[in-house]
Structures are given as C-alpha cells and as structure tokens.
Amino acid sequence: MVQYLDLPLDLSFAALSDATRRGIIERLGRGAASITSLADQFQMTLTGMKKHIQVLERAGLVVTWKVGRVRTCTLGNRGLSAEAAWIETHRKLFEARFDALDDIISEMKQEGGDDSAR
Amino acid sequence: MVQYLDLPLDLSFAALSDATRRGIIERLGRGAASITSLADQFQMTLTGMKKHIQVLERAGLVVTWKVGRVRTCTLGNRGLSAEAAWIETHRKLFEARFDALDDIISEMKQEGGDDSAR
DNA sequence: TAAATACTGAACCATTTGGTTCAGTGTATG
DNA sequence: CATACACTGAACCAAATGGTTCAGTATTTA
C-alpha cells in the first residue's frame, strides 16, 4: 500500500492555505523585504509576521538571513515545483473522472464497498 | 491594495495539506467509493472519514450523493484548476527571484524597509 | 419483523493555528 | 553613552483540526 506520508507537501500546502501567507509570497516576488516592513504592509504585529515567516521557511518557500538587526526575507530556491507536480498529476484524474462512471455502478453492486478494501 | 481574501483557495489548499485527504483524492481518481470503504482503506473510523469527506466537499474537490443508506463519493467537477493557476502564476516569481537581487541591496540601503510600506 | 448495515450527530479530547502582549537582547545612531 | 530600532522568545488566548466514542436514524436483508 502506498505510504500517504508526504511531510513536505503537508507543510507547503498548509503554508499556502493562509491568504496572508499567499500575499507574502506575492509581495516577495516583487523583491526582498524585512519582517518589520511586511508586518506594516499586512497590518500585523512584528511577532505575528515572524510566525508567518517561520511557517513559510519551514515549508521551504521563503529564505531569510540577518544583517545587523534586520532580517531580510526572499522567496526560497525550492520554489513551488513539488506542489505544481502534485496538482498537475491529479488534475488529470479530475478530468478523467467521467470515464469512471461505470465504476460507480459496479462498486455499488458490490454492496460492501470496493475490493481494494479487503 | 489587493484584497488577500481568497476563501476558495484557503479551503482547497487546507484540504490538500493533509496526507490522508490527498490519498482520498488519489483513490477517488481510480473510481467512486463509499465512506465506509474509504474508512476501511485508510484505517479510520467511519465518523473520522466522514469529516475528511466534508472538508473535501466544502473545498469543492469531492462530490457526494446518497442512494439508500450508502453515500458515494467522487471527485468534484471544479477540479484543481484554481489551485493550478495560483501555483503556476507564482512559480514564475520564484524563478525570477534572482533578478531581484539588486532590489535586496537597494532595500537594505533604504534602512526603513521598502517604500511600498509607507 | 428482527437484525445487520451505513451513515449522522453530539460530545469530548489533545494539539495546532493565528493572533496578541510583554519582556528581553543585540545593533545603530544622535 | 543613551536612546531608538529590529528582532526574539515566552506566555497566553480563542478557535480550528484530526481524531475518537457513543447514541441515534434510516435502509436492507434474512
């Protein structure tokens, strides 16, 4: 059985599920920024913004470094390729789902669910 | 300023952030299934699986209907197009981020963050 | 009609999340 | 050297998550 344990995808999809964090990515796409300036732009405390940055960093979407007292944030080099790959692969399943209408009937006839469950 | 409020994306990325739910999508890509059979396959209580299905349904990724006492689940017709679009759009920003290295230096020279924050 | 099946809903639980405040620490700057 | 600035960390909070159990309801089936 396939091991449905894909921590990196867990982390990055979770990171992308917050509109503020998607906004941060969009913002960093236009150039680097400090945590303070991001906190200003997104009307949030510095501590709150730092937490968002940490989530994005753990997901590998953002990279930061500190010079003096300023921590600068940019988009990470890992990018969104793994996420794009998962989505593209499974998009095909959605498109092909009408071909599976026969399966619905056959599964319903089996009255115990499907055989891959046994 | 752009309104960073995109509830549909919030819901679907959150739905995709769980490995079990990604597994359910993969499974439904191979044909419809009842909640009970999914609960069996993913070694979970029926109630637990029902919750996952509800999350996927609210995100528009799964559609269900009940015939008799059996609720059948399939992939939704909305698909993953909105998610794919967001990812593809922002993937370019990641790829272009090296072009922004000059910005980093200029922003650091501004010593107050960046001007779009003012 | 009695028993089994498939789901539904409520309640509970521990953990995580998204935010805050407050109290530091280290770095520039006047 | 004193003050301001940028961040860090701890503590707290309400709400959401991902699971469970237990007690129904509705539908088949023997």
Present the secondary structure layout.
The structure is a homodimer of 118-residue chains.
Chain A: H1 7-16, H2 19-28, E1 33-34, H3 35-41, H4 46-58, E2 62-67, E3 70-75, H5 81-95, H6 101-109
Antiparallel strand pairs in A: 1-3, 2-3
Helix pairs in contact in A: 1-4, 3-4
Chain A binds a DNA duplex (30 and 30 nucleotides) through residues 14, 18, 20, 34-36, 44-48, 50-52, 55, 66, 68-71, 111.
CATH superfamily of chain A: Winged helix-like DNA-binding domain superfamily/Winged helix DNA-binding domain
Please give the largest β-sheet of chain A: 3 strands, antiparallel
CATH class of chain A: Mainly Alpha
Helix content of chain A: 40-55%
GO molecular function (chains A, B): DNA binding; DNA-binding transcription factor activity
Keywords (chains A, B): DNA-binding
Pfam families (chains A, B): HTH_20
Domain HTH arsR-type (chains A, B): 1-95
In short:
Two copies of one chain form a homodimer. In chain A, 54% of the residues lie in helices and 12% in strands. With 118 residues, chain A is mostly helical.
Describe the structure.
Two copies of one chain form a homodimer. The first copy, chain A, has 118 residues and is mainly alpha-helical. Chain A has one domain (1-112): Orthogonal Bundle (Arc Repressor Mutant, subunit A). Chain A has six helices and three strands. Chain A has helices at 7-16, 19-28, 35-41, 46-58, 81-95, 101-109, and strands spanning 33-34, 62-67, 70-75. A three-stranded antiparallel beta sheet of chain A has the order 1-3-2. In chain A, strand 2 (62-67) and strand 3 (70-75) form a beta hairpin. In chain A, helix 1 packs antiparallel against helix 4 and helix 3 crosses helix 4 (46-58). Chain A is elongated. Chain A starts with 6 loop residues before the first helix and ends in a 9-residue tail after the last helix. Chains A and B meet through helix 1, helix 2, strand 1, helix 3 and strand 3 of A and helix 1, helix 2, strand 1, helix 3 and strand 3 of B. The first copy, chain A, binds a DNA duplex (30 and 30 nucleotides) through residues 14, 18, 20, 34-36, 44-48, 50-52, 55, 66, 68-71, 111.
